[in-house]
Design brief:
The protein has about 180 residues and is α/β, with parallel strands linked by helices. The chain folds into 2 domains: about 1-110, no CATH class; about 110-183, no CATH class. About 50% of the residues lie in helices and about 15% in strands. It is built from 7 helices and 7 strands; from the N terminus they run E-H-E-H-E-E-H-E-E-E-H-H-H-H. Helix 1 (about 5-25) crosses helix 3, helix 4 (about 110-120) runs antiparallel to helix 5 (about 135-145) and helix 4 crosses helix 6 (about 150-160). The longest helix has 17 residues, at about 5-25. The protein starts with a strand and ends with a helix.
Length: about 180
């Protein structure tokens, strides 16, 4: 099974999902997050482990993804909705104009600010299954022209003010700005 997915492989798999939806005369919407958003929206990475997304109609897209996984030799859950636990009720989204125009599958992504907030809230460190969020957060901070941890945490607060912002997140963001200052 494929361990990581490149931009071309993600788009190829999504084209297959689109074709299955077309054959069923169903239209779908898929909002990509995490590493996939970093690849498709910002061209900020070479690959990701899986496609974190929320999608509808959920059962039809999930079934299409399973068929695509078998056909392409992908992990069974290459497309998954595990990101749902990190969604904010005030999330903001954008269409991705530089993607192929799928006939039956619209692809959207979070805005850079919302993705930054999500990645800060997750604050994952490198481990067995992930390279962590630090590189993506640094990229987004630079992309957005953020100058200090207070500005970054204000963005987190904008999207997650209804939840407690963990000390882990605060330390994570402060550590990133210390590293940026040394670069």
């Amino acid at each position: 099974m494929k361990a990581t997915l490149s931009r071309a492989e993600i788009l190829d798999a999504l084209q297959d999902v689109n074709e299955i939806l077309r054959q069923k005369e169903t239209r779908g919407e898929l909002c990509v997050f995490g590493g996939t958003a970093m690849i498709l929206a910002f061209d900020a990475r070479e690959s990701t482990r899986d496609v974190d997304a929320v999608f509808r109609p959920a059962s039809e897209i999930r079934d299409a993804a399973k068929l695509t996984a078998r056909k392409k030799g992908l992990e069974e859950h290459w497309l998954n909705d595990g990101v749902k636990g990190f969604l904010s009720s005030s999330g903001e989204f954008q269409t991705l104009d530089d993607l192929p125009d799928f006939s039956h599958l619209q692809i959207i992504a979070p805005t850079p600010e919302y993705l930054l907030a999500m990645k800060c809230m997750a604050a994952r460190t490198p481990g067995y299954e992930t390279s962590g969020d630090k590189g993506d957060v640094k990229f987004l901070i630079r992309q957005l022209g953020i100058h200090n941890s207070n500005e970054a945490l204000a963005i987190v607060e904008k999207y997650y003010g209804d939840r407690p912002i963990h000390v882990k997140t605060q330390f994570f963001v402060e550590e990133i700005f210390e590293e940026i200052a040394k670069e």
